[in-house]
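Continuing from the previous page...

OK, I double-checked the sequence for Succinate dehydrogenase hydrophobic membrane anchor subunit against my notes and this is the correct one:
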Amino acid sequence: MVDRRTPLARARGLGSAKDGLGHWWAQRLTAVALIPLVVWFAISLVMLSGADYATVRAWIGSPLVMVLLILTIGIGMHHGQLGLQVVVEDYTEGAWRLTLIVLVKFIAVLFGLSAIVAILRIGFGG
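Thanks. Re-ran it with the corrected sequence; updated structure tokens here:
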């Protein structure tokens, strides 16, 4: 059967094209924010490669390092969640779509909070 509707008629009811702009911007901004954070983290890991446990623990205990690590984790988890949400939206349908989107968000929050709690416990000597 040939679909004789116009492109506009086929597109009606499929949602607004402007809904994804905020998502797109958030993904780009988190990517830009991650560039200096990941570079800093990689350089720090190289510099600490031969360090003992006490040195690494003291490094994590620095207030600036704790803030930068928490930012890296938080922004990285949000960026990853945004990217996985796009993949889920593009390749799934129906109830699976909503279920997987909620699951991805839940896992990102769970992993992010777990990592942040671990950083704070190490940093504050817990």
